[in-house]
User: What shape does this take?
Amino acid sequence: MIPRPLQITLSIAVVCYFIIILYYLKRRMLELKYTLIWLAAGVVMGIMIYFPELLVRFARMLGIESNMNGLYILCIAFILMILMTLTAIVSRQQMKIRTLIQEISMLEKRVREMESNAGNMEGREK
Assistant: This one.
């Protein structure tokens, strides 16, 4: 069981966490689809504050003797999940950037060709 003062402090911290996430969302510093993973982490934190026995069950289910080790494993799992999500996002953005660079290069080539053709046409008219 978590001592009451610690539970209150952790609850305030999770509420502040949600306020920060929602502030970033409102200011469009984060997009909704990227915010969902952070909100899920906050929900799990809130659940663990009020139902710490779930952590004990989780640790016992995995054969972990210490509850703190179970908490560390859970935190590491969430960090890995967030990192994998962010890596996937970065990879998609990199592919989009590469495609845009290629399209811009092709458009620039077409513009240069059109300008040189227009210059040749003007030279012939004179």
In short: Residues 100 and 106 are 10 Å apart (CA to CA). The first helix runs from residue 4 to 26. The helical segments are 4-26, 32-50, 52-61, 67-125.
